[in-house]
Amino acid sequence: MEGVATTTNQSKRGNAGAAGESGVRPAWLIVAGAAVLVAVVLALAFSGAAAPRQLSDPGVLTRWGLPISKAVHNIAVAAVIGSLVFAAVILPRNVRSRSGSNRSGSADAAAETGETPAFAKAMALASWAAVAWTLSALAVLVLTYSDAAGLPLSSDPVYTQGLASYLTDFDTGRAWLSTTMIAAVVATMTFGVRSSLWLALTLLLALGGLVPMALIGHSAGGDDHYAAINSIALHLVGVCLWVGGIIVLAVIGGKLGTQTTAVLKRFSALAGFAFALVFLSGIINASLRIGSLAQLGSEWGLLVTFKAIATILLGGIGLMHRQWIIPRLDTNLSARRVLWQLIAVELAIMAAVSGVAVALARTAPPGSEQLQPDATPARILTGYELPPEPTPMRWLTEWRPDWLWIAFAITVAAAYVLGMLKLRRRGDSWPVLRLVSWFVGLIALTYFTSGAPAVYGMVLFSAHMVDHMALTMVVPLFLVIGAPVTLALKALTPRTDGSRGIREWILVIVHSKFSALVTHPLFAAANFAGSIVIFYYSPLFGFALREHVGHELMNLHFLLTGYIFVLTMIGTDPIPRRAPFPLRLLLLFATMAFHAFFGVALTGGTSLLQASWFGNMGRDWGPSALEDQQIGGAVTWGIGEIPTLLLAIGVAVMWSRSDAKESRRKDRAADRNNDAELSAYNNMFASLAERNSTRPSTRRSSHDAPAGQRPTPPGDSE
């Protein structure tokens, strides 16, 4: 039984007392906090990052206060995200009690009597950790300016004006200002919201607070800065899920009671995913900054090596939890004691690693990450050197990994296979062609976000249009056929303790008003066709070219709009409503005509879109920027028409199958009731005919007419 079942205050006290025997003792939390500070001090002393500067020294308060504030900030944001994850997807919110009977007279009717102790404590942790996040982010903001300007903290008006300019005119200042504002909003929401939907939205906002942190730092000027930013973003998400979850377990462990085993199993699965995310993203990020094995001997390399070893050790402890300890919790009391002891050790190690990570961020990596004075126009605009002239072979060999989409593809591919295997073990079947279609879609997604279309799409408008149309027309076609939502609903086990897992959240989204709006056939078609004009003839196109966040949001938008449109046309996954087949064909031909119109407009256009970008790339090969844009118009027309025609054929086939299925259904019904429907239909007409034959005629005969009005027979005349 996963839920907490209580009937009296005495039983509540008994559960609380039993839970109080487990959990991490408060002394260990103090030890973990001390471990953070000790690790920060030792790592800074080892790397020399806090040593006085000969020029522009900001003072001892800034040199030591900035890394300590960052350590507090990192722990606080992890605790906030971990608490919200537990509240939204792991813990049941309300206590479920059993009453003797209900109005209908049935016994043991379930009722909700208030928040569970674990949920209440998790939300309290989220609230106060969010306050700490806000204050520490504010401290980092101020101290970062002091460190960058080389000025000690001061209330001098000149210092204040410089700080104000730093917050508005510099990327790092704007990033920390955004983080502080997001943290303040999250703190406010954690004190007020308790519904599942608002908790999920608060969690998404808190995760959004990681974006500014990923955009600043050493990665901004590296040779592959997009890959570095993406790997840092993935690393931060993994750390917050993993470290934040351990912090939450340590705080609420004594309040779990009979929920302990279920909660630990759920978190164990999440922690396994987070460990893989942290370890692999850390390797990717380190490989981007270390050019040779010899550089591992530098201060930065040694700190990275320590982090890697500690991460592997933590992963081994997590494996012990999942494989040996959690399966024995219900039958072995000593296993429960060992579990919380290991969690305490894990928390202390994580605290030390967090301190080292702060010092690592203050230590310069071995390779230079500054933009060279003689940088080419392409390097200045895109952050990368101009790729060589595209050839048929280079369309296959040119790659620039986008680790966000690669991580997404690997995750959902593994989840799909696990779901399919679970169905097979249960004795249910799942079409292999759906599996093949899903993997083809993911391979195509990886190619169009990391391969040559993405590489050349930064410098050629035509390649950009290939990328756009493929992401919105080709990739969704295969992904929709894979029917991932249907597989998830079949494979995932429903929860019965009042918490919301992945399956429950899928159902909430599918049946939401938002889903009803975006999957409405008219809205989906208008969004699919109209957003292309809004995007390319507005500043959004420039934002997507110049900003990494804009680029990733562009890819997400292309993929989602295409996926939703294809889903409304030929998808089998559940949606609130589906259009009749004639309307689907009409919408498909309308979008086909719109794409043709847009493509023709580009082909014949003489005004260059984003001229400051495509016109200043410094290409010494290929057509001119305007000619390339006209080629892009032809690409839009061609790629847009072929998949749309395939969709139309698919809709026609589904229409035919639907009619055939309906005919077979009627035939089976007729066989069961001996054509009762047809007999009733024929009897109705027979009854009408019989009624008409027995009704007296109301027309008068010609013989009954007055003499003066009788008709004269033909040929008679006076």
Write a short abstract of this structure.
With 718 residues, the chain is mostly helical.
Molecular structure report:
The protein has 718 residues and is mainly α. The chain has two domains: 34-99 and 110-366, no CATH class; 393-493 and 503-664, no CATH class. 71% of the residues lie in helices and 3% in strands. The chain has 28 helices and three strands. The protein has helices at residues 9-20, 26-47, 60-90, 117-149, 157-169, 171-192, 196-208, 210-215, 225-252, 260-289, 299-325, 333-361, 377-382, 394-397, 403-426, 432-450, 452-456, 461-481, 484-491, 502-510, 513-518, 521-536, 539-546, 548-570, 581-603, 611-614, 625-673, 676-694, and strands spanning 5-6, 94-101, 107-115. The protein has a three-stranded mixed sheet with strand order 1-2-3. Helix 3 (60-90) packs across helix 12, helix 4 runs antiparallel to helix 6 and helix 11 (299-325) packs antiparallel against helix 12 (333-361). It is globular. Residues 1-21, 99-110, 698-705 and 707-718 have low confidence and may be disordered.
